[in-house]
Every structure is written in C-alpha cells, then in structure tokens.
Amino acid sequence: MKDHRINELIELLHPAWKEDTDLNLLQFLQKLATEAGYQGALADLSDDTLIYHLKMRGSATTDEIPGLKKDYEEDFKTAILRARGILKD
User: Fold this and answer.
1) CB within 8 Å of 89: residues ≥ 6 apart
2) Class of residue 30 by CB neighbours under 10 A (exposed 0-12, middle 13-18, buried 19+)
3) What would the pLDDT profile of 45-76 be if each residue is shown by its tens digit?
4) pTM
5) Which Pfam family, just one, is annotated for this protein (predicted)?
6) Backbone angles phi, psi at 68, to 5 degrees
C-alpha cells in the first residue's frame, strides 16, 4: 500500500515541481504546505495532504475532492435510505 502512495506522490510532484525549478525540494514542499493551509511543522505534513493538494491544485474551490464523489448524494433522504440499506445502487 505504501508503494502505491509513494508512486502517486512522485507522479504528482514531478510536473508540479518542474514549474518551480528554482526551488529545492524542501522549499517546494513548504510552498505546497502553505498553499494547502497547513501551519504545522513540515516534518509532520502527511503525504495525504500533499497528494490531495496536488490533485486539487489549480481547481476551483467548489470542485469535489477526488474519492468523495462516489459517496455524494443530491438529497439527504436518499443518502439516509442508502446508508440504511433500503436503497441499493
């Protein structure tokens, strides 16, 4: 599982970092953390934060987060009925 996340992070980092070639890796990671609104220590920044930020970077703030769209329901009643198993996909 970790190999998949490492590969995904590297695939996302590579094209983004090419846009800021004047920055070293730590400077670029700090820039990404700041863009994502992360305020803690850089050593505590999770790879998930970087992955989702890189996926959503440049998107509108109203765009759906990847991976959550599959669970999205238009109305509350349908969501409750699906959660209780009354409605099937």
Assistant:
1) 82
2) middle
3) 999 899 988 988 877 777 777 666 666 667 88
4) 0.68
5) DUF1040
6) -95, -20
